[in-house]
Structure formats: C-alpha cells, structure tokens
Amino acid sequence: MSNRRSRPKKIRVLPGFKLTLGFTLFYLGLIVLIPLAAVFWKTSTLTWPQFWQTITMPTAVASYKLTFGASFFAALVNVVFGLIVAWVLVRYEFFGKKIVDALVDLPFALPTAVAGITLAALYSDHGWVGQMLAPLGIKVANTQIGVFIALTFIGLPFIVRTVQPILEDLDPELEEAASSLGANRWQIFCRVILPMLAPALLTGFALAFARALGEYGSVIFIAGNIPMKTQITPVIIMGELDMFDYAKATAIAVVMLVVSFALLLGINVLQWWTNRHNTTNLA
Amino acid sequence: MTPAATTFHLPHHVVHRHTTSEPPAVRRLLIGVALVFLSLFLFLPLVFVFVQAFAKGIGFYFETLRDPNALSAIKLTLTAAAIAVPLNCVFGVCAAWAIAKFDFPGKNVLLTLIDLPFSVSPVISGLIYVLVFGAQGWLGLYLSADNPKFPWLQNFLVEHDFKIIFAVPGIVLATIFVTFPFVARELIPLMHAQGRSEEEAARVLGASGWQTFWRVTLPNIKWGLLYGVILCNARAMGEFGAVSVVSGKIRGQTNTIPLHIEALYDDYNFTGAFAVASLLAFLALVTLGLKTWVEHKNAQLNEPEKLP
C-alpha cells in the first residue's frame, strides 16, 4: 500500500458540497461583504482628525445620546412587559389567546413606514392617544418620548419570542420541589424561575436594543427630527446623504457599524451561554 | 418500607394548584396588564390604520389606490420582491445544504456573516450600495475616469446610461440585502436537526443528487422553506430605510409602496397615506395568518416523530 493512501480520505456520500458552498460564498461576498467593505474604503479617504471631527460634531453626539438612551429604556420596558406577555401566553388560558399570540409578531410583519405614520398620528395632539395625554401635560409627538414609544413598539416581539420557548420548557418539578420545601409563589418566581429565564431575558434585551439602535422608519415620523433634540443617528446619516456629503455620512455609519458588530458578537456569546445553560438544566 | 409508602403522591390537582400557579386575582391582574399593554401598542395602531384609511369614504380610498403614482409604486414593490425573494430562496437552500449537511472549518464565522444584514441599520444598508454604485462611488469613479481599464466597457455603460442608484436596480439590490438572511436562517437549524441519514440512505439506494434533494430533502423542509419565504416577502415589500436611500424618490418612477406612503404623508394627505398603508397592513395580517398556519403544519409534521 502506498504511503499516500494510508490516511483515509473522508468520503462524502452526499453531493453538491463544493457547488453549494461556492455559491453561498460568492453570493455572500457580492451582496454583503464587498458593499460593506466600501464603508471602510470610503472612510479611509478622510484623515484621522477629519474623521474624529465628523463623528464628534454636536448634532451627532446628541443623536448618539438619544439613540442609545431611548433604545436602552425601550428594551428595558420591553423586558418587563415582554416577560408578563410571555408568562400569560404560556401559563394561562384566556379568550382570544391564539390571536393575541399571533399578533405579538405584528411589529416584525408591519412595515416600519406604516408603523411610523400610525404611531405619529395616534400620539399627535389630535390623535386618539395624544389628546388623552395632552391634558396631563404629556407631549409625545416631536419629543424624545415619541422616539421611545416607537422603539418600544419595534422591540416587543424580541423579548416575548426569546422568553416564550424557555418558559414552555421549564420543568414544573423544580417549582414543585421549591414549594414542598416551603417557598411561597413569589419566592419561587424570584429564586427559581427568574434565574433560569435570566439568559433568555438578557438575550432578548440585547436583540431589542440592537434592533432599536438602527431603527429608522418607525421613528422618523413621530420624532419630528428636530436637530439636537429628536434626531436619531440614522437621521444624521440621512441628512449628510441628502447633502451628498458621503464621506461624513460614512464616518457616522462606521460608528454605528462598530457598535452593531460588537453587539452581534455579544448576542452570539449570550445565545451560546443560554444554550449551555439549558442543556445543563436538562442533564 | 412497603411499596405503597414509596409511591404515595398527593392528588395531582392539589400539587398543581399550589405550586405551579398563582392565585386567581394575580392571574387576572397579569392577564389584564398584558392585554392593556398589547392593546395600546399593537391592536390600537392596527385598528387605527384601517379606520383612517376609510375616513373619507370608500370612494376616496379606491381613488387613492388607482392614482398612477400609487399603481407605479405597487408595480415596483412587486417587481423588487419578485426578484429578491427567489434569489434569497436559492441562496438560503444552498447555504443550508452546505452548512447543515457537511462539516468544514469556519462554519460559525459563516453563520455570523450570513446574519450580518440583520444587525446593519436600514439606512446603512442603502448607504453601502450608494458607496459602490453612486456617482462618488466605485462605479461613478470608473465611469468618469479619463483612462479606464476597459474603455469599451466604459463606453458601453455611458452610452446605455447605466444607472443603479436612484433607479430600479438599486432598489432591488437594497431589498436583496435587507432580506438576505431570512430563508437561510429558517432552513439551517431545521436541516441540521434533520441530519443527513435520510439523504445518505437515498444515495446508497441509488438516487442521484437531484433526486435526493427533490424527493427526500425538499418534502422535509417545505414548511420551513415556506415560512422563510413568507417572512422574506413581508420584509421585501415593506422595506423603507434602505430603499429610501437608494431610490431618489422620483414619483411614479422610483417610489415603492412605503416611499409613496411617506410622500402622501409629507403632502398632508393623511387619509391617502393611510389608504395605501392599509395595503401593507393587510399584507402584514396575511403574513401573520400564514405564519401561524405554517407553524401549525410544522408541528403536525414533527409530531409523529416525537411520539415513540
């Protein structure tokens, strides 16, 4: 036997590996990677001080604060209400539950422009909700609260859909054991259920937060886009594009991309942690 | 100890009542909070779209939809979806076949790269194509270069007024980008869970590669594939941010349905904007309905396997 054949080559029974992987890489490169690389190419036409000056201009900094702050609080509110919605959908029976369950995905399915004009009209001074809030002195349209409302709408399904499957798979024996050891319902929730849901809640929070950071369509109508007040970062990019200042637009886009990619990495680690956490529970 | 003592249990409903549920008052409160929150954020906006759409009567509604600019927007949206969805569908099946049925290094990196478009802001998704194909981008620089690499190509492109940005091809490209991962990310976990034993059996029994795919793989993944296509289509028809960067918003030419809604809204024609928006809201409802139906079908398909 020749030496070359002593290391057996792995035989693939199924065909098409080279073809499908080749097409996958080609299409990925053409549609996603090459165009994304253009961002970094365009940024390289700026000098370092120019780049720094662009990304730290006052309107941009104000937009970062608004985008991060509103996204953070919207995701936080969704953690609380998303958990309640998931809990109710998994554990209780009530009239119309199936329809409610299906409608939770509405923010995924409803185009952002439709959500945008609807929320703007609902929360305007003459809108159904806006005119009820006006006597209380709360103004939503064209304020930062409006941005928060739109981002809350967008983020809801992320929390519900990450928590729901984990809640469904929770072993009731653990709760029964805690109960037989004398824990009351609230203690069981805080000490047994919540720790098991924590990775999923955190993942859902991160997903909703990441989505909110880049959101555009549902926010711009209700926000009014007042410079230094209600302009989110994508609106700043859009403004530079309208003035055909592509280098500036790209510089701010780089800031957003770096944050998004860091979040994506974090979410992947979190999901890996969630999966490991669950398999440990099952074992 | 007698066997009877070791197998003693509390009656099941007694255990259940106290350990895995809350008092009725708490239940009602939680259901109430959930429903009020969902009504305010989901149901109310949905109802509002349809109420506003018909605020000036059914005549005005159909007049708005029959407007030439509206018809052109509907046609453009359908065209973009008709190109983007099948392309991403083919990509999704190829990617899932390579990733789920074979082992190779760098798989996780590839998975992350496929998900990238989801973590990119829609505005940036449009911007990247402007940078490649815009007047100041790679294509623009090439077209205006004095000594280009292939002069015949430059001549050809200039003569035929080859445009991607502020034209239909740019809209199609941006749509492909934002809907890129949908089918792949539905199919990869599904095909991975199904393993490769059925396909291997088909091959050993003499089926060709294509026969294996059409007769074994496709029937197994059809509901997952349909699910991915539904989600992909909904996003393709509703995309706003990315398309608004590359479209140039020329009414009657490069406006899609979402851009036409924005144009009407900016004209203070609110009823008109909501009339057109009701089309997309209806599409969203159909999407949710189909999604629920497919999930139901998928559960049915997987049930017999779980039973034994």
Summarize the SSE layout with pairings.
The complex is a heterodimer of chains A (283) and B (308).
Chain A: H1 17-43, H2 48-55, H3 58-91, H4 97-103, H5 106-109, H6 112-122, H7 130-133, H8 144-169, H9 172-180, H10 185-214, H11 217-223, H12 233-242, H13 246-282
Helix pairs in contact in A: 1-13, 3-8, 3-10, 6-11, 8-10, 8-11, 9-10, 10-13, 12-13
Chain B: H1 3-6, H2 12-19, H3 24-53, H4 57-66, H5 68-101, H6 107-115, H7 122-133, H8 138-144, H9 151-159, H10 168-178, H11 182-194, H12 197-204, H13 209-238, H14 241-247, H15 257-266, H16 270-306
Helix pairs in contact in B: 3-16, 4-16, 5-10, 5-11, 5-13, 5-15, 7-10, 7-14, 10-14, 11-13, 12-13, 13-16, 15-16
Structure, explained:
The complex is a heterodimer of chains A (283) and B (308). Chain A has helices at residues 17-43, 48-55, 58-91, 97-103, 106-109, 112-122, 130-133, 144-169, 172-180, 185-214, 217-223, 233-242, 246-282. Chain A has one domain: MetI-like (MetI-like fold, Orthogonal Bundle), CATH 1.10.3720. Chain A has 283 residues and is an all-alpha fold. In chain A, 43% of the residues are buried. Chain B has 308 residues and is an all-alpha fold. Chain B is 78% helix and 0% strand. In chain B, helix 5 packs across helix 10, helix 5 (68-101) packs antiparallel against helix 13 (209-238) and helix 13 packs antiparallel against helix 16. Mean pLDDT of chain B is 88; it is low at 1-7. The chains are: A mainly alpha (283), B mainly alpha (308).
